[in-house]
Structures
1.
Amino acid sequence: MTDFTILADKALRDELLTREECLTVLQTPDTNLLELLQAAFKVRERHFGKTVRLQMLLNAKSGACQEDCGYCSQSSVSTAPIERYGLLPQDQMITGARRAAAAKAQRYCIVISGRSPLDREIADIASAVRSIKQEVPIQICCSLGLLNERQAKDLKAAGVDRINHNLNTSEAYHAEICSTHTFQDRLATIRHARTAGLEICSGGIVGMGEGDEDLIDLALALREVKPDSIPLNMLHPASGTPLEHCTPLTPQRCLKALCLFRFLHPRTELRIAGGREHNLRSLQPLALYPADSVFVNGYLTTPGQPAAEVWRMIEDLGFDIQVDALPTQGATPATAPAVGLHS
Ligand code: SF4
């Protein structure tokens, strides 16, 4: 049996695992999964202790996208029965931030469908973010599609902390899941956000028919990007999307993928993202051994675990919810420790 502590020790020394070691992680027999999780937890514990970061999403504009991303129920090639609406009014974006804070989310993610945002949409979102920052002690992430440098700068000036833009899969496999934009287009948006001084959230999706080598290439490409956080989505195949018939993931496959990302990104926030409930099922708590971050209250077009159930899961594990010291712009700075569920 592989000695996974060797891999954990390498990660703790910030040494890159070999490709062969990465494959060993993904191909771990299910009977050895607990040893793998224990090794990944050693790395997670060094850099994140037993804390868990919560985030909440707002789908601020839904459907009617002209792109053809095969995994997405909002794409031009999807017939999935989803809600379609234009950009929500600012007061709804602000209300969403209040709800996220009440759910103990450290970060609120405003997401819109579409290839790229219109300038008036950027202006509306920027205005809503300014109001949120005056009132709600929460970090703001925006996921708005492909951005140019000026749009990224406008968002930064409004108080946006972070941009989400996922690489999704390996560069070699990208054309299999999307033909309307390229992997390089995605990298360019990340560069513009970085140039504007924004933090970067970038991850991918497991289960789109990619091979082990693609998953490893994705994790290695993200090492070049050096994101501040990595969301790892697990495909929840929606009826009516091109990927609806993909081979279903197993909970074990999802856990091995999370362990791989933890070893290759020992110091980076690692989020169990979309598809968590559907794919991990009753093994969800185990995923918090490699990962340190989750979404609460659902995703863009699918429901998810309510915040209170997530709090309970974290409490049952003996972990704590992380709450950053986040004064609003109108308030005096204060510090807050990581708090448990009863704080
Ligand atoms: S660009 Fe975004 S909204 Fe449009 S199809 Fe791709 S993932 Fe879906």
2.
Amino acid sequence: MLSQKLTKIMSADIGIDLGTANCLVFVRDKGIVLNEPSVVAINKTTREVMAVGEEAKRMLGKTPINVEAIRPMKRGVIADFSVTEALLSAFIKKAIKLVPWRQQILAPYILIAVPSGITEVEKRAVIDSAKHAGAGCVKLVEEPMAAAVGVGLPVLDPAGNMIVDIGGGTTEVAVISLSGIVSAKSVRVGGDELDLAIITHMKKFYNLMIGELTAENIKIKIGSAYPVKDEETLEVKGLDIVSRFPKTVKISAKEVRNALQEPVTSIIEAVNGTLELCPPDLAADLIDRGIMLAGGGALLTGLDRLLTEETGLNANVAEEPLNAVAKGTGIMLQNDYMHRER
Ligand SMILES: Nc1ncnc2c1ncn2[C@@H]1O[C@H](COP(=O)(O)OP(=O)(O)OP(=O)(O)O)[C@@H](O)[C@H]1O
Ligand SMILES: [Mg+2]
């Protein structure tokens, strides 16, 4: 058996945030080296992978007949195992190319953050996929724990720390104390559900069909959870359901906020539900410590304000919410937080 020190010299340590919307890869001593959408474009006839990540996302909804752009993870779970494996494999291979040759001698140690709600079968599938993709040893960590570490919450303290990670497919809420999750909730509502609510709104009120990318764009540009001053309007292009011709309509920030109300309420309910499950002493700590928001969904305008109002606790958005989980895996690798037997 090789000593731990030697193993560290001869192999890479890689942290992966395997997100529904985005996949980020952290390499020890280098930081986040990859940050790309979790999309794979495949040839429908041969099942050959045509493109992965950024390039494949550009193809979403715009592929020629024989090419399909797939998001293999939906609502925080693996919907397509073989395509997820292709995605992991492409990213792991790209990451390995970025480490010095001596760290390529042994297969890498890989720490993957996964949603806390996934089943044992899904966990096994992630581990097997990473092993097929060239990992020597694979460890999993729950996403909210990685996010909490990544945003710098003092998770080792004997006190309550609340993290809310709003991703594309899931919202993960957890109260952490003494490096363990004390109470948690994982709901399959995130940015995708918000996009879907916008698609439904456009169909219902304007007979307008829009794609996922357009809906996401509307959400990012004028979407909100709480009223803001000087609300904007936006011109949206899509396809008229009746005439089948392209058309443009103007929508307001207020109507988008109304359209988003249902999924936003589910997120608030997940936070309240976790607070209810939390032991009183730890819940009391949150009065001083507040709630930390991470994940891309945390960037929805006014969500922090709405959460503060609804819970009575101070909700703050992390500095780089989209990087929180990947950073957390990196900090864990860097500090030998995980037990690293091979
Ligand atoms: N400025 C913004 N306003 C609102 N939503 C945003 C903004 N920027 C990104 N998002 C949304 O954040 C989501 C992606 O976040 P993130 O990368 O944290 O998800 P993920 O980790 O891939 O998903 P999951 O954790 O559910 O598996 C997308 O739905 C995206 O539309
Ligand atoms: Mg995530």
